Structure formats: structure tokens, C-alpha cells
Amino acid sequence: MKPGQYFALIIGILFVLIGAMGFIPTFVQQPTAATEMPGLSFTMGAGYLLGIFPINVLHNIVHLLVGGLGIFASLSLGSARLYSGALAIFYGLLTVMGLFPPTQSTLGLIPIFGNDIWLHAVTAAIATYFGFLAKPDLLELRTGQKDAASQG
């Protein structure tokens, strides 16, 4: 398994765990006032995961989907790189959206403000490396093996 595949697997497992934790009341702190979730019209399961990350049921489902895709993508280097690139773009977009009040609730459905912004930015940055910058050679992509001459 290559580093890009490990990234997809690890991030996939983390997102599945985060998504599952969002459905367990012990890990979710309820907002103290309605104004804590600005612009959010879908409030089912709204709260703060671990007391710091705004979530709701739809947010948890997105985490489960992203996690499941990561686990599945880790099966091959090509799919892991594609997943990482898509994750970089997706979370990069969410980071920018979280900075502006009109888009901080993704049309009133999913909260992406507060501490979610830096978490999305870090996720996008790491995914950018594995999706776009870490380049395996063609032989490694084709066979999963490094060229014996290049191993030195």
C-alpha cells in the first residue's frame, strides 16, 4: 500500500468515526441559543461535536459518505489519488464558503462555520498533497511496484 492509499484509508476511517460520533448524544453538545447556528434552517440533530464543531444530521451523513468513499478509494493508488484530489477541491470550497456569512450554512442545510473552517482548510491542504503533488512514477501506477533501478 502506497502513502496516498494510506491517506485515503486513514482519512476515510476518521470521517466514518466522526460521522458516527455525531449521532451519539454523548459527543454532541446542544446549542445554548438559536442564534448559535446562524442561517441554519435544517436543525435536526444540530449541536457541537465534542463541543467545538458545528454539526447536524446532514453534516453527519456527509462525513459518513466521505469516509466510506475514502475507505473504498484506498483499494488502489489511482482511486486514492482521485479521491484525494476531489477531497482537496471539495474541502477547499467548503473552507472558502465557511468564511462568508451568506454561505456558512450551505443554503440553510449544513453548518460550516466556526472551527469547521480551519478543520476543512487543514483537510484540503493535506488532500492537495496526496491528490496533486505526490506523483508516483508510471511503473508504480501500472504495477504498484517501484522500478528496481530507481530504488538504488
Tell me roughly what share of residues is in helical segments. Answer: 55-70%
Q: What count of structural domains?
A: 1
**How many helical elements?**
6
| Bulk shape | elongated
Q: Which secondary-structure class do the elements indicate?
A: mainly alpha
Low-pLDDT parts are none
Radius of gyration: 18 Å
| Strand order in the largest sheet | 1-2-3
Report on the biggest sheet: 3 strands, antiparallel
Distance between the termini: 20 Å
Order of helices and strands: HEEEHHHHH
Quaternary class? single chain
* SS elements, strand count: 3
Range of strand content: 5-15%
Mean pLDDT: 90
Describe this protein's structure:
This protein is mainly alpha-helical and 152 residues long. It has one domain (3-134). It has six helices and three strands, in the order αβββααααα. Strands 1-2-3 form a three-stranded antiparallel beta sheet. The longest helix is centred in the middle third of the chain and has 22 residues, at 77-98. It is elongated and about 55 Å long. The two termini are 20 Å apart.
